[in-house]
Amino acid sequence: MELPKEIEAYRDKLWRREEVLRITDAADGEALVNDVGFCLGLTDARTPLPSFFIAVCGRRDAYSPKNVQKDPEASSAWLLKDEVMRRGKVYYSKLAKGRATFVARHLIPHFHSIYGIPKDEEKDRLSDPALRILEVLRQEWESSTADLKKDAGIQDRKDLTKALDELQKCMKVVPYEVLYEPKFTYLWTLAEERFPKEISKEVRRNEALVEIARAFLTMCGMTLKGDLSKAIGVSRPDAGAANARLVEEGFAVRVSPGVYRLRSIPWQIQ
Question: Is the whole-model pTM more than 0.90?
Answer without folding.
Answer: yes
